[in-house]
Structures are given as C-alpha cells and as structure tokens.
Amino acid sequence: MGRFTRLFFERFRQFQQWERSAQIGFVLAIVLATVSAVVSRRVDELRTPATIGAMGALITAQFIFMWAHRGMITPFTLAQRHYLHGEFDQAIAILETLRSADEADFKAITLLGNTYRQVGDLDKSEAVLYEAVNIKPDHYFPLYGFGRTLLTKGCYAEAVTAFEQGLELGAPSATHFDLGEALYRAGQVDDAKRSLLLVIEIPEGEPHRVLMATYLLQQMGEPIKPSYAQIDAGLRYWEAQAVLFADTVYGQAVQRDITHLSLMREEI
To answer: Within 43-139, where are the H helices?
Structure first.
C-alpha cells in the first residue's frame, strides 16, 4: 500500500509538470473514455459506437501521456548525466535527496557510492556501497562499485572477493581487469596473470584498462609491453587516479606505475 501511494504521488507530481494543454487534453480523454464505457454498458443500441469511442479516447490519452513525457527524465537519469559529465556535486545532491526521501533503489544508492569515490570521499563511498550491496546482494552492480572503493582504499583482498562475486553474478567481462589489478596488488601473481590476460583479448577494450593490464603483465614477467600509443591513450586516466587517491597506498602504488610508464614512453 505504501509503495502504491508513493507511486501515485510521483505520477501526480509529474502530471503537475505537464504543459497546460496536455493536462486538459488528458483529463478530457479520460472523462470521454469513462462516459463512453458507462454508455456502452447501459444503452444497448449505443454499445458498439460507445465502445469504439472509449477505445479511441484511451488511445488518445496514451498518446497525450507519451507526448507530455517527451522531455521529462527521472532524477536518477539526471544524476547519471551529471556523473558522466564529471558534475559530481550535482549528482550527489540529487541522489542524497532521493535517499533521504526513501526513494532511492539499489542502483541510485550504488551510483551515490560511486560518486563519493570520484570526489575522494572513500569512507562515505564504502558505507553507501555496503548499504547497496545489502539491499541487492544478488546483483553485480553494487558489488563492482564496492570492489572499486575497497581497491582504492588499499583493501586488496576484500576487493578481490567483491569482484569475484560480481563476476559470478554476471558482471561485464571488463571486470576481469579490476579483479586482475586487485590480485596483482595483493601479490597473487598467478591468478592476476590469468585475469589480466583475458583483458588484453577483449576487442576494443578501454584504453586505460588495456594499458595497465599490459603493463602489469610485463611486470609479472610476461613477454609483452605497452606501446607508445597505448601509454599515450591511457596514461592520463591513471594520472588522475593517482592524484585523487594520493593519500592511500593504492594511489601511491599507481603513482609509481605512472613514473615507470612515463620513462618507458621516453625510451620508445
């Protein structure tokens, strides 16, 4: 009942945001459909035309509904757009509002935790993502975000567990990189190799993942090394990560990798 009530008021708030012409047209279409339905049941000789009229009015109401929503987006979608544009403070403001109103599902809470990580607030990120994992323990999305935050905090073994669980639940194949990186940082070389070798075989993999996977494999003795183009395409991402997490053992490890990669680029 509570969920129905929230849904009703959400739809009512959206209706209030419609253009005036759409509001009037929608109400008239519903009224016409209702009157036609009543007439079709009570007046036998008008049953057929009234039924046709009711169906036509309902179809009209559907078209008005879709037209009225043509430019409307959900708060979650708006937060996603802010996140993708690097507008993290705006995303946090929207998502925290949803969370405070008890209107945030596990995806919104996961996005909130990921956003806190992007601004360097790892403690808050971990707490929020832990909440998301508990809400939806059988979905890879919160587990992946939780793993990334644990990794950036230097909790490598715990990050490995989160990524492994995420992959078991259907996480994208690119997650093998995150697992491989966590395994490497945790000193589990053989397992790290297996995961990272999968990454460099992914067609059109993300440049920063391909770069670090290739570099880490070289560091573990594989006969492979990053090309100049790979370093040039992926290094900027890791430089930003090193700055963002400079106060963690992970950020410091990434900074050492960057220094080494920069020297390698100069030697190529």
So the answer is: 47-68, 75-84, 88-100, 106-118, 122-135
Burial class (CB in 10 A: 0-12, 13-18, 19+), 221: exposed
Q: With 0-12 CB in 10 A as exposed, 13-18 as middle and 19+ as buried, what is 3?
A: exposed
Tokens of 71: 């430019």
Angle 112-199-84 from CA coordinates, rounded to 5°: 30
Opening angle at CA 83, ends 137 and 108, nearest 5: 30
SS3 260: helix
The 10s digit of each residue's pLDDT in 111-149 is 999 999 999 999 999 999 999 999 999 999 999 999 999
pTM, to two decimals: 0.75
